[in-house]
Design goal:
Elements (H helix, E strand, L loop, with lengths): L27 E2 L14 E12 L2 E10 L4 E8 L6 E2 L6 E2 L11 E9 L2 E9 L3 E8 L5 E3 L8 E6 L8 E7 L10 E6 L6 E7 L11 E4 L4 E3 L2 E12 L2 E11 L7 E4 L10 H4 L7 E9 L4 E8 L3 E8 H10 L14
Parallel strand pairs: 6-10
Antiparallel strand pairs: 1-22, 2-3, 3-4, 4-5, 7-8, 8-9, 9-10, 11-12, 12-13, 13-14, 15-17, 16-17, 17-18, 18-19, 20-21, 21-22
Bound molecules: beta-D-mannopyranose.
Beta-D-mannopyranose (BMA) binds next to strand 7.
Length: 340
Amino acid sequence: MKEIQLIGANIPNMPWQDRPEGNENPVWRHSDNPVIKRNPAKGVARIFNSAVIAYEGSFLGVFRVEDNTTRPHLRMGHSQDGLDWKIEDAPIPFIDEQGNSYMPRYAYDPRLVKVEDTYYIIWCTDFYGAAIGVARTQDFKTFISLENPFLPFNRNGVLFPKKINGNFVMLSRPSDSGHTPFGDVFLSESPDFVYWGKHRHVMSRGGQGWWQSTKIGGGPAPIETSEGWLMFYHGVTGTCNGLVYSMGAVILDKDEPSRVKYRSRNFVLTPEEWYEERGFVNNVLFPCATLNDAETGRIAIYYGAADTYVGVAYTTVQEIVNYVIDTHEEVGDDADLGKI
Ligand code: BMA
């Protein structure tokens, strides 16, 4: 096994369970999943595909909440241990850059990423169709919604937690107006979080892994390691019974993250448990956040299950990076810079 370092902060109190005896998988589930169940708060039908971070000794999250209208919106949540969550009663009170109250028509699949001293919320918003919404906060009291970074149609905006070569870097998955066509992950850079360019192709769907044949999309914010950026993502395949969403893992080049260094041909987690196989949308496993402890290399992955629940799964940087290297398959021009 190659020695791998996780680069970043220590979160000694993050959720953790050792791999169960006899389990040989690269990622294993929390034993008491789902950590957020159905009807988790008054008037809330489901919470899933949500993002968490460590904050001042405890944990904060931005949650995809669906009430009885089933129209998704975002709410903050708080937890002492990262597992037992108290969700706020009202949506996040965004304001625009002029200070006026602003409520997205819908908001789903949030990511929450700290870059330097600012926290960014990235979600799927309505901008003449599905597009990427962004907001920033420094104190989780004032949330300023910013100009949309990209044109529609686009989803799965995932910000890197660090500027690379002086620029913000964001992954996204452009598409047409339908739910599935196009299906590859791209990245764009910005010096100021307003103007985005230097667009590059990062990863293609497909390859030997049929689980990722239809489309792929970035997941949690990439994790800095000695081997490059470790990113979990979702891969989708079509079946007679509809789409199935699994989780994959990839290592992107540290300085040129549009180059794929290693990518596992295998899924690293796929719907197998009742809360993943059965819900509002069956067979969906959709990762949106991780907590990482640099000292131990532990990683806790938060994922939406069946568009109904939140699950947690664990791995270590050592296990997962070595697994990706050992099961690597180059797909298309993944290894190129992605600039034609
Ligand atoms: C995707 C997104 C996700 C959802 C998934 C499965 O296109 O809308 O929010 O989990 O479909 O329904």
